[in-house]
Amino acid sequence: MHQPKDIALRAAKALADKKGLEIELIEVHEITTLADYFLICTGTSNTHINTLCDEVEKVVTDELGEELLHREGHRSGTWVLLDFGCVIVHVFTDEARKFYDLERLWNDGKRVPLEGLDENTENV
Q1: Which of 2, 6, 30, 112 would disulfide-bridge 25, Cβ 3.0–4.6 Å?
Q2: Closest by alpha carbon to 14, among 3, 27, 25?
Q3: 3-state secondary structure of 22
Q4: Proportion of the chain in helix, strand, coil states, percent, rounded to 5
Q5: DSSP state of 25
Q6: Mean pLDDT of all residues in the chain?
Q7: 122/124 Cα distance (integer angstroms)
Q8: Radius of gyration (Cα) for the chain, nearest Å?
Q9: What pLDDT, in 10s, does the model give residues 82-119?
Q10: How far apart are CA 92 and CA 87, in angstroms?
Q11: What's this model's pTM, rounded to 2 decimal places?
């Protein structure tokens, strides 16, 4: 079984590998029971958002063996939520991300640095 932070970091790397933009990881376990981490990312189009989500789902379920509990918003194309229990991934269009502004909403959470998520990173 993988630790929540390991799952979140591997999901973040999957987003980076598929050119996700403005990837943010917020540790929220001390302020909510919803999850341990929220991972937030911007996609450039509906197709890009679906590609990002498909990659995260593939990596987390196939490589890490974690079950996807719920996928929401995929029909709208402007926002998708992937719920893995301990990690919730939000992928938005730029406009939707600004509208929902989750970074402000969860401002009391702890930002987790995500340096080195490029292709050369093997530890994440």
Answers
A1: 112
A2: 25
A3: strand
A4: 35, 25, 40
A5: E
A6: 91
A7: 6
A8: 13
A9: 999 999 999 999 999 999 999 999 999 999 999 876 54
A10: 16
A11: 0.90
Side by side, which strands form the sheet with 37-42?
Answer: 70-72, 79-83, 87-92, 37-42, 21-27, 110-112
For residue 45, what are its two tokens?
């189009």
Residue with tokens 């996928």: 71
H or E, element range at 12: helix 4-17
For 39-55, give the DSSP string: EEEE-SSHHHHHHHHHH
CA–CA separation, 94 vs 57, rounded Å? 21
CB atoms within 10 A of CB 77: 15
User: How far apart are the C-alpha atoms of 79 and 44, rounded to whole Å?
Assistant: 11
| Cβ atoms 50, 80 nearer than 8 A | yes
